[in-house]
Amino acid sequence: MKSEISNYQVTHLSCYESCYDLYVITHVLDKKKEELIEYDERTRMLRIVNAFTEEQVDRYEIFRRSCFPRNQIKRLMQQVSGTIVNQQVCIAMAGVAKVFVGELVEEALKVAVCLLIIILYKKIKINLGAKER
């Protein structure tokens, strides 16, 4: 009877060790997977930034360094909503505002280029019309 109990205890202990080993292996694999994903994202961003023109790199650096003051965002949100706003909500709103302004600037640059093309086209058309006379 004593040997049966000890065999049970050994089997039970082995089960715990196997579960712990499985947990450790799973944890290590998850960590490696996260590191690979992070490395892949960094590599992708590096390739994108390397393809930028010098003007785009300058704008990207300014975009990365810029931020909206959280205390002003918080005050504005509290004035508009009439409630107390959590700090995490302010951080999220500042991020959304930053992305919105970035997209707005990109669209403004596209419009500026279109206007420049229209102006140049009109000047060329006027110059060609003056030469025909």
Structural class: mainly alpha
What is the helix tally?
Answer: 4
Number of strands: 0
Q: What is the CA-based Rg, rounded?
A: 31 Å
The amount of beta strand, in percent, is under 5%
Instruction: Give the uncertain stretches in residue-range form.
Output: 1-5
Q: Helical percent range?
A: over 70%
What is the makeup of the main sheet? none
Order of helices and strands: HHHH
| Apparent shape | flat
Mean pLDDT across the residues is 81
Terminal Cα separation, in Å?
A: 120 Å
Description:
- The protein is mainly alpha-helical and 133 residues long.
- It has a domain at 1-51.
- The protein is built from four helices and no strands.
- The chain has helices at 2-50, 54-65, 70-81, 87-132.
- Mean pLDDT is 81; it is low at 1-5.
Summary keywords:
0% strand; 133 residues
In short:
With 133 residues, the protein is mainly alpha-helical. The protein has a domain at 1-51.
Give the SSE map.
Elements: H1 2-50, H2 54-65, H3 70-81, H4 87-132
Helix pairs in contact: 3-4
